[in-house]
Amino acid sequence: MIISCVSRCGICENCQKQLYAHCRNEGSWIMGYMIDGTHAEYVRTPFADTSLYHLPEGLNEDVAVFLSDILPTSHEIGVQYGQVKPGDNVAIVGAGPIGMSALLTAQFYSPANIIMVDVDDNRLEFAKTVGATHTVNSANEDAIQRVLELTDGRGVDCAIQAAGLEAT
Is the pLDDT of residue 110 over 70? Predict the structure, then answer.
């Protein structure tokens, strides 16, 4: 089973709109926040009927772990809330797991450019291999100026902050 980090009742107005992180009936972001021990062998899962997902047979469990938190967080909070659309210019600040997941899921919406900003050249090189159209190392150059250059002075339609460091 995959336990979503966002539990949902499935019946409130927000759940009906697929805004599960805003569940009004004691759901939302409670796993690992209000309910401790979510990496234990057993855990109480509120709204299990709507918050647990069968793990497809043959799917590597090391890969599946990303489906419970990192990937859906990046997609919902970054890409969906950012309203990424075809032709958009998107900047993702932070090329760690959350940023990379945002990079992967943003591509489903066909943006024109996805600019990855980080301070680590290795992460930026990897970002290019999985879909970043441009990379900016904010430790070596003015990220805002470079993004403006890459977008002909327009800036971006969506900026996703996925960094844990103020320097990025």
Answer: yes
The type of residue at 28 is S
Contact assessment for residue 164 and residue 96, using Cβ atoms and an 8 Å cutoff: yes
Tokens encoding 71: 């990937």
- Specify the residue for token string 């336990």: 3
Check residue 77 and report its DSSP letter.
I
> What are 126-162's pLDDT values in tens digits?
999 999 999 999 999 999 999 999 999 999 999 999 9
- The label of the residue with tokens 């647990």 reads 52
Which of 121, 87, 124, 129 lies closest to 106, judged by CA? Answer: 87
Measured CA to CA in angstroms, residue 157 lies from 36, 39, 43, 113, 147 at distances of 37, 37, 40, 10, 12
| Spatial CA neighbour of 73 closest among 129, 111, 28 | 28
Residue type, 139: A
Tokens 């990079």 -> residue: 103
Is the model's pTM score more than 0.85? Answer: no
**How far apart, in whole angstroms, are the C-alpha atoms of residue 8 and residue 35?**
14
C-alpha separations of 39 from 2, 18, 35, 68, 75 in Å: 12, 26, 11, 11, 22
SS3 call for 109: helix
